[in-house]
Automatic annotation (TrEMBL):
<dbReference type="GO" id="GO:0010181">
    <property type="term" value="F:FMN binding"/>
</dbReference>
<protein>
    <recommendedName>
        <fullName>Putative NrdI-like protein</fullName>
    </recommendedName>
</protein>
<dbReference type="GO" id="GO:0016491">
    <property type="term" value="F:oxidoreductase activity"/>
</dbReference>
<keyword id="KW-0560">Oxidoreductase</keyword>
<dbReference type="InterPro" id="IPR004465">
    <property type="entry name" value="RNR_NrdI"/>
</dbReference>
<dbReference type="InterPro" id="IPR029039">
    <property type="entry name" value="Flavoprotein-like_sf"/>
</dbReference>
<dbReference type="Pfam" id="PF07972">
    <property type="entry name" value="Flavodoxin_NdrI"/>
</dbReference>
Length: 151
């Protein structure tokens, strides 16, 4: 299993690490690898063909507005979109997990829903900021269920 994510402020990276730790302790039979798209781009590497099932993790960064009739334009995280769009990567995505700040109302996790609509995979769940222990447990179990259904 692969977790593919982009993290700008460190919140998504911290959440993914909590999930990796949870899997190592509770689901050791499912080895987890991670891919930080920001690091990939920083190192100048090409977007790879992932070639295996993965779950994507995406924070929400939008251009102002209210997320309804304006302010729904993704900024800063488009490298993840480009990776997913490459080759068969969208087909291998089991789903996306969105994060954001509930203070942004309609914009909360909006980008994850936009990816879901564009690429045809589900939004598995959402969480706020770095997530709580309950978020980690809930989302991990959803990932286990969707991963198990792919085998």
């Amino acid at each position: 299993m692969k977790f593919v994510y982009i993290s700008l402020s460190g919140n998504t990276k911290a959440f993914v690490q909590k999930l990796v730790d949870y899997f190592a302790f509770n689901h050791a039979e499912i080895p987890v690898e991670t891919l930080d798209v920001k690091e990939l781009v920083k190192e100048g590497q090409a977007y790879p063909d992932l070639g295996q099932p993965y779950v994507a993790f995406l924070p929400t960064y939008l251009e102002g507005g209210n997320g309804v009739d304006n302010g729904d334009q993704e900024i800063l995280t488009t490298d993840l979109r480009k990776l997913i769009a490459k080759g068969n990567n969208a087909r291998n995505c089991l789903g996306i997990v969105g994060s954001g700040n509930r203070n942004f109302n309609n914009q909360f996790c909006l980008t994850a829903y936009q990816y879901s609509e564009q690429f045809g995979f589900p939004v598995l769940d959402t969480y706020e900021m770095r997530g709580l222990t309950a978020d980690v447990e809930r989302i991990a179990e959803k990932i286990v269920t969707v991963y198990g259904s792919e085998k």
